[in-house]
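User: Teach me something about this protein's shape.
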Amino acid sequence: MNSVEKRAILGVGGIFALRMIGLFMIVPVFSVYGDNYTHATPFLIGLAVGIYGLGQAIFQIPMSLAADKFPRKPIIFLGLILFALGGIIAANATDIYEVIIGRALAGSGAVSAVLMALLADVTREEMRTKAMATMGLTIATSIMLAFAFGPLLVGSLGISGLFWLTSGFAVLAMLLLLFVPTPLRVLKHNLDNKTIGQQLATVLKIGDLNRLHIGIFALHLTMTAIFVILPHQLNEVMGLSVRQQGLVFCHYYLSALLLPFHLLSSLKRNAKCAKYFWAQLR
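Assistant: First, the predicted structure itself:
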């Protein structure tokens, strides 16, 4: 990789990490601390956790379309501003409805796809797979760290402090965006001479993508439901404090992260051995 590609990977990876750590620190603790908000109910607490993802789903395509017509960096900057403002609103909230509004606003800063497009703009095709794989590893590691640090910090900072920390990470991500190389690209104001509706209709006809959409939706729904229900169960049934739960989540996620790498390396070694013995038999 050349120096421009390394800068791009470090910069975009850092932005992803800051956003993900800020976001997922809230997830494993909010169902417990959400009871302290006025008008809080189990349904509204679950809505406050999940509405961020709904905002992402609604605004991901509009943000991406804007990034195809205008320079990508200003769109990313706008998304980070929305993310920070949402965190500030949630940090100052005393009512569960205010938290929901803040989380929805933060979710509207849906720039993950734009970040990946920016990374693709500044990396060569032969380096793109490595760059995308690095982003995946960065995201997975960030979530693991967030699951560990969120429960550890909430005792001293409170849930409001975690929201402030989220906004602070968004500001750091804005500064980091200045470090990312600016790509030279031709802006397309009318992609393939098709309307947005025609492009969307074309995408919705792709069966493989629809199966991917359903799978990801089910995955996120399950994860959100688990973190609304599980913290209370771990506390009431097993007597684990929120701080102890953070260690449980971290160990579980670390195992889920490392096990596939171990299996993959084992399969590669076994494949090489099988290939060697087959060559000897021939």
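Now, about its shape. The mean pLDDT is 81. The chain has one domain: 3-184+224-250. If you'd like, I can walk through any region in more detail.
User: That's plenty for now, thanks!
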